[in-house]
């Protein structure tokens, strides 16, 4: 029998703690067991090296996101090796090959009419001349009045849209962003 | 659902492959889970093997992650596969509850966590693997405390398993000059071992890892009881044949325990396999190995009395003793 095992991809912006290993170890137990049984096993995982928290940390430390990702990816490899993990492949999401495959899948979804375009209003910083992702907008929570990030208020746990915030600030330059229309792709849920 | 991060090119991620959208990124949770597929393709590319046999309706596929990741693996990932016309959607989602440290919630910002780079420098990997499996938060949150960690290691791993292996091998070394006796193993024990493989195998396949290792350690206690009740230290004086049978049975237990424990405690199992000259650890009952005198004595002197003993008798109070690098002879991992 063929067995595919996918371990979750730890996020490369900080060290692994025991909670990570606690949820990932069972993958290695399964892989070793099925191999000993004589089954064909493919056990993969990798470091998640994309996303906003890595770029924010890189900006804070004055290094490139790639340097942050490299540091923790290397550390993850060392930890997994020492703990005896037997991944057939442990890779990373800033790998060029990963980008190509993801883009191919995206195009396939587009060709199969699973995704569509829609215009939405989004926070735009005219000083930085760029649209801002959720976590790059900070301000006052419209529900509890405390400081909050554009994705969620830690104080009252309300899920927010960056444009909901009162007294919005761009995390990069501190100026107030405004709403501006932009086109995005959306998943068409009823087609699945 | 929005499929992309609302960002521009200064941010990292996978670009939207559509004209006019190149400066926008694909939403991380669409992109990250697709890593399972891209990693398969990369593996195929690097090894020259075919990954398509893992992406079909017959494949059993396990996904392991913390409970906060469940929606991404049960909704988003199957939706992508279906939408892209790829077979092999997840069949097993294995997700644990949370682990707390000394009864407090983990917090990376408050530095309240047991950091892996730290614990692996101080403790044997099998001790860590053992603790995390036997205390796995499979049904409810579980707590890690250093006291419990040390206790579980000393009383179970070392006290029960290490003790059984050590006392049996020492006895053979002392009274048989290191040569495994060729005794008879009772059929009832053979049945019990067969059942152990079956029971533990089913539990692993159904992702009940805690119960699987509990079942094995319950047998370790049975093995110790067997040694106590047979009293080989008396048998050796009164009945050589009975003593032979006892020690052959003990070696039979050890060889099979090394095999069923291999998924959980690979480093110790590898050591036992070296000492007993087992060719390869497989998932099926094996006979008690018959070592020629020379081979066994050589292995006993070189391995049990030095490395093996040091590895299984590790005391948590002197972690530096475990600086020996144990090579993983089993499997080649490609870290990229």
From TrEMBL, chain A:
Residues of the Methionyl/Leucyl tRNA synthetase domain: 4-187
Catalytic activity field: tRNA(Met) + L-methionine + ATP = L-methionyl-tRNA(Met) + AMP + diphosphate
Pfam family, one: tRNA-synt_1g
InterPro entries noted in UniProt: aa-tRNA-synth_I_CS, Met-tRNA_ligase_1, Methionyl/Leucyl_tRNA_Synth, MetRS_core, MetRS_Zn, Rossmann-like_a/b/a_fold
GO MF, one annotated term: ligase activity
Keyword Iron-sulfur: no
Keyword tags: Aminoacyl-tRNA synthetase, ATP-binding, Ligase, Nucleotide-binding, Protein biosynthesis
Protein name: Methionyl-tRNA synthetase
